[in-house]
Structure of Mitochondrial inner membrane protease subunit:
Amino acid sequence: MALSQGWVKRYFKAFCKGFFVAVPVAVTFLDQVACVARVEGASMQPSLNPGGSQSSDVVLLNHWKVRNFEVQRGDIVSLVSPKNPEQKIIKRVIALEGDIVKTMGHKNRYVKVPRGHIWVEGDHHGHSFDSNSFGPVSLGLLHGHATHILWPPERWQKLESVLPPERLPIQSEEDCLHGSP
């Protein structure tokens, strides 16, 4: 009986050591490097959740890339909602700081994205709560860069950073004054 108690004690001790090493490593990884997230809603259709309410895509979010605010036009990013800090939203980066963007329903027809901000929109215009509703977003609200669809298995793929041609930012203020697209 004493022999079996010694084995249990050693096993428990080894388990505890492994647990107290693994948990901080896992938490650090999920906080600093990457995590997975389920995408809900129709705002990013057809890129994400093309089946509507029947399915939810699960994406890999790379925290490392946004840590230094390294985002490009066309990237799909997760960010803290500017209107509800308890909620995270996922949108496509349309414009970077200094870009002039032609808005779709914003109070101003053209907006110059201020320093330290980006302009984000959902791919499903009219079904998205995005910069057209709340304006440019601070880079400090970035949470992750969506790089891959992990679930469902038939949709497993790398997400490309593609900016729809009709959403290219206007490069100069002169184009705004003369009404050029």
Observations:
- The chain has a mean pLDDT of 84.
- Strands lie at 34-38, 58-62, 76-80, 88-95, 100-102, 110-112, 117-121, 137-138, 142-151, 157-158.
